[in-house]
Predict the 3D structure of the following.
Amino acid sequence: MFFRPWVYVIAFVIIIALIAVMQPDGAEEELPIIGKIPAFDLVDQNSKQFTLENLEGNVWLADFIFTTCSGPCPIMTERMGMVQHDLLEIEKLKFVSFTVNPDYDTPEVLKKYAQRFDADVSSWSFVTGKYDQIQELIADGFKMGDTEEIVFHSTRFALVDHEGNLRGYYSGTEPAKHEILTRDIQTLINDIR
């Protein structure tokens, strides 16, 4: 059986067309806006006032922990540290760990906790305040955790854009989704520019 050269050309064109059709179009799916983080007035590990304005213009990743936790909190803090370390070169990225046990977690306690995990506090804040304020922030702002007893908190990270919009949740204990989290952070960072 004899093949003509044009058969190869047609086959080649069909293969290229199939590859083009099967490839994703490159347009990333836009992250949804889940809600708006309300204003808050809390205190950081240096006993300085910490408000939503401290984060304005930055993408930020938040979690809820307490320093005496022997379960998921240390894992979450280590994971947050990994994300911070992997994205150190990004200037407009902040990290915030809110305590869910403000009666015990004073600024001094939070400062020691940050040191224990070698947190880079130039971009990572550990925040405390009045119990009611934190409870309201978790329930109404971040829409996560137990609203009755905030010590039973979520083990998810919350991603917030530079305008204070809540954009996504990610496991704080499972490293499998690390690439998705870092990709989504980069997407939101690119939106600032």
Notes: The CA atoms of residues 10 and 161 lie 48 Å apart. The two ends are 60 Å apart (CA to CA). Residues 31-192 form a domain with the Glutaredoxin fold (CATH 3.40.30.10).
